[in-house]
Amino acid sequence: MQTAAKWFDERGFDFITPADGGRDVFVHVSAFHRAGLGEPECGEWFSFEVEMDSNSGKTRAADLRKLNQKAAEVEAAYATR
């Protein structure tokens, strides 16, 4: 899945909306740090996987990867077909 960062909550977590319009997914700032990305900036595109958090039993974003804008547009075009 992929999403564009809109804003990031000062509490260190937020919910991101997949570009395909799916359900919002919890993401903690530590997921960006584990991926070596630092904190997201508005307009940056990311791909991510959805995994189950073994502690909470809820879904969360994982395996975040930063995409360049062109790659994000191409992926979004193929995802809607």
Helix content: 10-25%
The CATH superfamily appears as: Nucleic acid-binding proteins
CATH class bucket: Mainly Beta
Shape: globular
Instruction: Please state roughly what percent of the residues sit in beta strands, choosing from under 5%, 5-15%, 15-25%, 25-35%, 35-45% or over 45%.
Output: 25-35%
Largest sheet, strands/sense/barrel:
3 strands, antiparallel
Q: What would you say the CATH architecture is?
A: Beta Barrel
Which class do the helix and strand fractions yield? alpha+beta
CATH fold annotation:
OB fold (Dihydrolipoamide Acetyltransferase, E2P)
Count of domains: 1
Order of helices and strands: EEEHEEH
Summarize the structure.
Helices cover 21% and strands 35% of the residues. With 81 residues, it is an alpha+beta fold. The chain has a single domain (2-79), classed as Nucleic acid-binding proteins (OB fold (Dihydrolipoamide Acetyltransferase, E2P), Beta Barrel), CATH 2.40.50.
Report what the structure shows.
- By secondary structure, this protein is an alpha+beta fold.
- It has a single domain, classed as Nucleic acid-binding proteins (OB fold (Dihydrolipoamide Acetyltransferase, E2P), Beta Barrel), CATH 2.40.50.
- Helix content is 21%, strand content 35%.
- It has helices spanning 29-34, 69-79, and strands at residues 2-4, 13-16, 25-28, 45-52, 59-67.
- It has a 3-stranded antiparallel beta sheet. It has a two-stranded antiparallel ribbon with strand order 2-3.
- The model has no long low-confidence stretch (mean pLDDT 79).
